Amino acid sequence: MGHARAGEAHAGEARRKRTRTERTTEGLTVAVASALSLGLLAGPVAVFGATARHLVTDTGTTVFSRFVVPVVLLALLALPLLLARAVFRSGLRKGRERLTAAAPAALTLLAGSVLPFTALWLVLAYAD
Question: Measuring CA to CA, which of 26, 52, 105, 112 is 20 to 30 A from 33?
């Protein structure tokens, strides 16, 4: 009972008193990265949603296209959110505070949001 596990010993060290500036910087990082990533995802969500709706309701598309294209577009949009969730949960498992764990997750979300945004611009640039 008197033995502490290795993870518990490090958790105490990681929970040192942080300054107000550190908390403010982390909070701003999370807020700005989240806002930018949601802004980057807004365009692809609208365009991919309209495309998926068009493919599902159009009479000239195959059953395969009606199913596969919306699933691929949904996966492309959900991927950044799933990656950010995994990074956030990993930070919590390591004993970090919620805000400290949220900063890398928000940056992961921002980085992952570039992929659907780039895909949208490639579609627009090379569309006939």
Answer: 52
